[in-house]
Amino acid sequence: MKGDVHNIGKNIVSLILQCNHFRIIDLGVMVRPEKIVRAATENNADMVGLSGLITPSLEEMAVVCEQFEAAGSAVPLLIGGATTSEAHTATKLAPLYPGKTVYSPDASHAAAAALEIVSANAKSYLKRTAERYSRIAGTQKKAQTGIRDLEYARSRRSVKKQAAPLPEQYGIRVLKDIHPAKLIPAVNRRILARAWQLKPGSEEARRIEKDTMALLDDPGTAAVFNNALRAVAGLFPANARHEDVYIYRPDRKERLATLHFMRRQLPGKHGSMLSLADFVMQSNNAPSDTVGLFVATAGAGIPELAEKFRKEGDDYRALLSEILAESPGGSAERIPASMGYRRMVEARQYTLHPSCGRLSLRGGSFGKRNDIYGSECRKTYRGFVKRKFCDGSPGVGVRILFCRKGCA
Q: What value does the mean pLDDT take over residues 107-134?
């Protein structure tokens, strides 16, 4: 589907479903809705799985639901992926394709749901699911009544009282020779375990971790990862105005870009209503603070490596290599020191939905070739924005660093 740009999660689901004796027809990524409907009909599918990685995927899922309904189809849809949720499925998708949409949070649940759908109790299972979604939709509608107006929300913002210390220099730095061995300590073990739907710290999770790290013991595999790791970082003068953050060239004379954030309009902890812009000093015109941006990838050559493993019949190592490539962000640990920050406390915020609904800096701060693609993703402050590096390779993370010092 549109916006679904990699196969990692789907490959895990596919593997588990095959272990449960399902035959999988893989249509790939970025598939048009009409092709999905046609393939389901031509293959007499028992169900269709839809995966959503970024916000456009959610919009495309709605189109797919509408087309299945218009075609008079009775094929159930399994909904899953990073941006999806049961609440979204219940409120946005189920009404478009009533009684035939099922949300699946992970691969193990997908297998259980698939077995229910092909069982003798399929009708009652789908009916119970539809009734639960109807209740969820009603609850979600009631929750919206507590939203406050924007001006009131702004009055409950966090006020930053002191700007970040000035770096030794502003500008862009290309980080080269990032060896995989240096990033292994920075790999998030919890995320690695959850990618396999395992409990972090469990015996199975430790085995997966050991096998993943063992990939780099092979010289050929290590060479691919060594070539794949790339990062570009920049520190820029900045100031904020309400929910917008303005980024300037190092000489402070020209504005490079504007980051449009959102503000929470439901009271949070202690009644606060925050925006990511609150982490930058507010001023009307001149830049009065510093913002750091970086783009990191570990994607170049990884699809080819994974395909090589699959041709050798080793799906396990293929998945290990793809999931390891999803954690390039450890290179960020080198950014503050390499850019002139020796001692600082930072708030490393992710430009993700709902904190930043849509953000696109194409040809802005990092130049035309190194486009920074913005966030159209799931939960605030979680995960990387997965897009493409300037050479077209997958697995890019875009994060924004704000100095937290002085922020109330």
A: 93
Maximum distance among all Cα pairs of the chain, rounded to whole angstroms: 70
* β-strand pairing of 101-103 with 171-175: unpaired
In this structure, are strands 48-51 and 77-80 parallel, antiparallel, or unpaired?
A: parallel
Alpha carbons 20 and 119: distance in angstroms, whole number: 13
Positions marked active-site: 4, 6, 57
Rounded to 5°, angle at Cα 370 from 364 and 374 = 65
Q: How far apart are CA 303 and CA 307, in angstroms?
A: 6
CA distance 244 to 356: 10
| Helix, strand or coil, per DSSP, at residue 28 | coil
Whole-prediction pTM value? 0.59
Taking each helix axis from N to C end, the angle separating 302-311 and 219-228, rounded to the nearest 10 degrees, works out to 150
> CA 385, 391, 395: angle at the middle one, nearest 5?
30
The string of pLDDT tens digits covering residues 197-210 is: 777 888 888 888 88
C-alpha of 107 from chain center: 17
